[in-house]
């Protein structure tokens, strides 16, 4: 660790008014067991005080906090024939990854143990958990309320709030993250000072301040990284776009993998995707001039959905695959709700990411995105989009234009169901006439729409709004879940 960082950390810690449950000062070594007990106590204390780390500093007086230096060299110290650091780590449960740093300040030798806050359970040393009470190390079992709070502070970690890169100074944070784009997307003026910029990023949980240094969270990195390759745990998460020559994956025409964070690279990504999509001079009766095959708002929303709903815990990255007859947009992870309910229900495993992307105007308000995908697919007279769930990923498919005669039965039923669902969430009901308008079926061919409705009823994807009505002409239909 850089000496510059360690000196700044030291100077910040000695400014503390007193020793605390997560900071302890000592001049010199007393005993190996004492160090183990203090590591347990400081890790548990840091957890209770919402600190990322606890600190045991050698070379500082505990009362005056004056920096005197120490003769203790923990990095080279031994317990018998074993390195002290290894001896300590073997007797901690769970085995937290503490770090020992030795450095000089004004010609004086200092040593600091940087101890991560515990997660999931109290840290024990030789089967006993400890806690700091004032300046005294005590057994945690003597304070059941503190013990209970540590266990209660152990929910599953939220991916967005985990640390992507830590121990950075303010210059490094601004170098790694595109702060200007954040303020541009929110239509806010760029603050005049770096401290004000970082305060805003801290309030958004994009950055965490820890004493004298900063950490970038996964949320900050995945959205605003200038280069995701700078973050070792996220370098496999950039979005990948592949363009194939035909209807299969045999021949690849071109491929592009982004390196920017999702927020700063999103518009460029969508523009590049649209530049690769085929155009159509005539799509049914809706358009008579050349236009893109797929509605841009549908592509945009499905790409945003793939980003928001991906499971960051498993391998893989959002992938857009462009074929001659379709575009497939996939993300790692299976959805938390069944695809049939995408249009009326909403649940995301990455709520902080979703909320910020909505405020950045990258995607639609909660639950309205799929409505727009289906609506514009109908406007462009495209087959109904399909949502498929495989073992470890989810794929949304937009199909190129087809005539009704060219559609398979399953495509017609899916379109009928989605049309009924779209009408229902719009406070309307599907009718034979509305379905004819969706497929551009001539009035004289109303029987064709009736047959599609009948088949969809048989598959139990829709149901009659009023089963007691005997009027076939004015029948209304709603989705099966309504």
Blueprint of the fold:
Layout: H1 3-14, E1 23-26, H2 32-48, E2 53-58, E3 78-79, E4 82-83, H3 84-90, E5 92-93, E6 99-105, E7 108-116, E8 124-125, E9 128-133, E10 136-139, H4 144-152, E11 163-168, H5 170-176, H6 179-185, H7 194-203, E12 207-210, E13 213-217, H8 218-224, E14 240-244, E15 252-257, H9 262-276, E16 279-280, E17 291-292, H10 296-309, E18 319-322, E19 326-332, H11 351-359, H12 369-379, E20 386-389, E21 393-399, H13 409-425, H14 432-439, H15 446-458, E22 462-464, E23 477-479
Parallel strand pairs: 1-2, 14-18
Antiparallel strand pairs: 2-7, 3-4, 5-8, 6-7, 8-9, 9-10, 11-13, 12-13, 14-15, 16-17, 18-19, 19-21, 20-21, 22-23
Helix pairs in contact: 10-12, 12-13, 13-15, 14-15
Detailed description of the structure:
The chain has 482 residues and is of the alpha+beta class. The chain folds into four domains: 3-155, Methyltransferase, Cobalt-precorrin-4 Transmethylase, Domain 2, CATH 3.30.950; 160-234, no CATH class; 236-402, Heat Shock Protein 90, CATH 3.30.565; 405-482, Orthogonal Bundle (Arc Repressor Mutant, subunit A), CATH 1.10.10.10. It has 15 helices and 23 strands. A six-stranded mixed β-sheet has the order 15-14-18-19-21-20, covered by helices on one side. Strands 1-2-7-6 form a four-stranded mixed β-sheet. Strands 5-8-9-10 form a four-stranded antiparallel β-sheet. A hairpin with a 3-residue loop joins β18 (319-322) and β19 (326-332). α10 runs antiparallel to α12 (369-379), α12 crosses α13 (409-425) and α13 packs across α15 (446-458). The longest helix has 17 residues, at 32-48. The protein starts with a helix and ends with a strand. The relative contact order is 0.07. Mean pLDDT is 90; it is low at 281-288.
